[in-house]
């Protein structure tokens, strides 16, 4: 297959691109490499895929990988209504996996326009490009954040999600509605994936796993919100990637018995971990006791998440299963190698 991966320099996009390449697919990676967090990490991810920083810095120029003959990268923003359709016209993608987005619940309180530009304008541009260039399947990232203050546990894709409590969540719910409309009007096959607290090697620096590890190793205190009374359905990156790749490779095999080729899945570990237990596991792995600064609940945050993955199991015979202790060990090993062992 020929697949476009947007957000290819990002955490999940990098791993999905690598997996597809190793499975023999042709991949075009797209990313605008914004400054939401240090661009060096994004450039270093691309280096793992055979794209140099010099090549990645060039706008609107397709660069061929020196490592994977079936990988090309282009620096381009989804908001670019002139060049995005040109890319689709030139490449004839079988599938598109849209992982590009302005991420982060808390940052949406500071810079809401970034979310509108990337997550709304960008997504409609992707939908239009897929519609007009005969893309067979659009797979896109949604988020567990769409469940908002839903008190029913576990979260099911059939639950109402009409009350988002952050702009980030609102944009992700909007993506699902927009995808449904295009599936209905134009029979575009779309699959939305609600990810649950993804972590692992090459992870984002704004996520708890990264922030806590960095602070503990540097003797700084960690911020523990809601005084530690939080639970998260932590999902290891390899589990996310396996689910995404399997759904991409399913192609246009629509699992929905209805006429509208539209589907939503949760991808989560289905085993929420208490935040304080998570910190204990991290302390054990690092061999250092954490200094905790317990704080009130953050605006836009929720107390508990847990994914019901029954439809993922039923349709794809797949469920995430990496234990938190295993995932933490892999992340810590990568962190030490990347940050502490560099010249």
Descriptive key words:
343 residues, alpha/beta, Rossmann fold, eight-stranded mixed beta sheet, two-stranded parallel ribbon, 17% strand
CATH C-level class: Alpha Beta
Structural class: alpha/beta
Return residue spans where pLDDT drops below 50 for at least 5 consecutive residues: none
CATH topology: Rossmann fold
Written description of the protein model:
It is a single chain. This protein is of the alpha/beta class and 343 residues long. It has one domain: Rossmann fold. It is built from eleven helices and 14 strands. It has an eight-stranded mixed beta sheet, sandwiched between helices. Strands 8-11 form a two-stranded parallel sheet. α9 packs across α11. The radius of gyration is 19 Å and the shape is globular. The protein starts with a strand and ends with a helix. The mean pLDDT is 94.
Put the structure in a nutshell:
By secondary structure, this protein is α/β, with parallel strands linked by helices. It has helices at residues 11-22, 39-48, 53-56, 83-91, 112-132, 167-186, 208-217, 237-249, 275-286, 310-316, 324-340; strands spanning 2-6, 26-31, 63-64, 71-75, 95-98, 137-143, 190-195, 198-199, 221-225, 231-232, 235-236, 262-267, 273-274, 291-295.
């Amino acid at each position: 297959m020929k697949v476009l991966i947007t957000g290819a320099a990002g955490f999940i996009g990098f791993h999905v691109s690598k997996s597809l390449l190793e499975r023999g697919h042709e991949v075009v990676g797209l990313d605008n490499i914004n400054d939401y967090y240090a661009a060096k990490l994004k450039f270093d991810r691309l280096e793992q895929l055979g794209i140099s920083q010099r090549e990645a810095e060039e706008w609107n120029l397709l660069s061929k990988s020196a490592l994977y003959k079936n990988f090309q990268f282009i620096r381009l923003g989804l908001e670019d209504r002139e060049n995005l359709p040109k890319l689709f016209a030139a490449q004839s993608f079988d599938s598109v996996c849209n992982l590009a987005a302005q991420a982060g619940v808390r940052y949406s309180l500071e810079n809401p326009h970034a979310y509108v530009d990337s997550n709304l304008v960008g997504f409609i541009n992707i939908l239009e490009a897929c519609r007009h260039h005969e893309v067979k399947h659009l797979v896109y990232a949604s988020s567990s954040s769409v469940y908002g203050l839903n008190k029913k546990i576990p979260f099911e894709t059939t639950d109402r999600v009409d009350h988002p409590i952050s702009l980030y969540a609102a944009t992700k719910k909007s993506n699902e509605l927009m995808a449904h409309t295009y599936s209905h009007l134009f029979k575009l096959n779309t699959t939305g994936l609600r990810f649950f607290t993804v972590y692992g090697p090459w992870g984002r620096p704004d996520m708890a796993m990264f922030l806590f590890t960095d602070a503990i190793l540097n003797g700084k205190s960690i911020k523990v919100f809601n005084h530690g009374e939080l639970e998260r359905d932590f999902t290891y990156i390899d589990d996310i990637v396996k689910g995404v790749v399997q759904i991409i490779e399913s192609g246009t095999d629509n699992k929905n018995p209805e006429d509208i080729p539209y589907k939503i899945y949760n991808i989560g570990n289905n085993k929420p971990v208490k935040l304080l237990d998570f910190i204990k596991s991290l302390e054990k792995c690092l061999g250092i006791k954490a200094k905790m600064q317990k704080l009130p609940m953050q605006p836009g945050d929720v107390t508990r998440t847990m994914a019901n993955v029954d439809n993922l199991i039923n349709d794809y015979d797949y469920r995430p299963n990496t234990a938190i202790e295993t995932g933490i060990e892999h992340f810590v090993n990568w962190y030490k190698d990347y940050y502490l062992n560099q010249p």
